Amino acid sequence: MVWGIAYAELNELAKPHQLLFKIGLLGVSAYAAATFMELELSVLKVTTLPVAVEIVTVAVMTHYLLDLPWIWSFMLGSLLSAVSVAVPIPCLFRLKEEGNYGHSKGISTLVIAAASVIEVECVTIFGTLIAIAFSEGSIIGQILNGPICVVIGVLIGMLVGLFIRRFPGQKDAYVTILRTTLIGVACLFMMLGTAALGYDGAGPLGCFVIPYVASAGWTLQQKQNVERTFAFLWHFFQPLLFGLIGASINFHDIKGDIVGPGVGAISLSILMRTATCFVVLTGVKLNWKEKLFVCLTWCPKATIQAAFGPLALDKVKEMNKNEVIEYAHIVLILAVLAVLITAPLFDFLIIFSGTRLLEREELAEEEEEELRSSISSISVLTREPTTLDFFV
């Protein structure tokens, strides 16, 4: 992202093409596919309320401090409430490698599954609100646009997912690479196709539904093979995404009166979310230290903000709605601030607090081998990829 910002500042003619953002979104969809495949419905109870609290906090503060209309303030709230699994996953793997911290309590499973749910919730809300904000039809049409996007995203996602579940066959020699390609292409067409039809909110939701439905009929090993391939691809999409969003930033457009309230809104919303998470985790069998650690892992922002932050500005330019371009700039600026502040901060805090808040555990030899196998899809995120990873 820093490279992209510097490049844009040194060369004002360097403006990333909007299509590159659409292609970059495939990386987020691919990465989300790698973490959304092993979702447990039980995590819903510890995600919905904290997300709602953070969205409302951001919306209220930006509405009154930055004069954003309610539809834009809630759109920004849903964007900033999304959790980046790209930050806690490598940290969790490192903690497992160093001392198997928190394994018996299933903390890693809870964190990753809940983060996946939060991503779906926030992306769905954001997509629905952006569709309503840019709808040019009647009021009734604007209201119906959101539910229509949800129905389209879920329906197409389920149909495509069911197809990929059956094709290619289980015994195909290239089953992993074919499944990975089909999911990636399907997600890309979901993003581009629904946007072309005017239902932008359906694309991101469909990208989450497709891999979840497809993988429901696969074995654990087959899921892990596809996950490893997507994790490998993420090494290439991640710098593309963050470079593009950095190149979209023009410091001449960043006003000092935006940064202060923006940082305040981000900070307060994270505090409110953390407190709410701690309360909601009351029914979970964790001690207060473990609850605090789990709350910290759900705070960093990165991938979703990097991918969807520029969408509102792209939409404004595409539809020539210059009267709301200032609102779109505020959304982009706060998305960037959230990434720059929370990603490195909580990456450090998760590692630092993990060895102090979680209990170190020892595993028997057979249990250790099983653990290494189960998190093999995570380990690829902590090292440099090789071409062999793509042909698992």
Describe the overall structure.
The protein is mainly alpha-helical and 392 residues long. The chain is built from 17 helices and no strands. Helix 1 packs parallel to helix 10 (220-247), helix 3 crosses helix 4 and helix 4 (70-80) runs parallel beside helix 15 (325-357). The chain is globular and about 60 Å long. It starts with a helix and ends in a 13-residue tail after the last helix.
CATH topology: Na+/H+ antiporter like fold
Computed structural class: mainly alpha
Give the tally of structural domains.
Answer: 1
What is the CATH architecture assignment? Up-down Bundle
Can you count the helices?
17
- Are there runs of 5+ residues with pLDDT below 50, and where? 12-17, 373-392
The count of DSSP E runs of length 2 or more, i.e. the number of strands, is 0
The proportion of residues in beta strands is: under 5%
**Rg (C-alpha, Å):** 20 Å
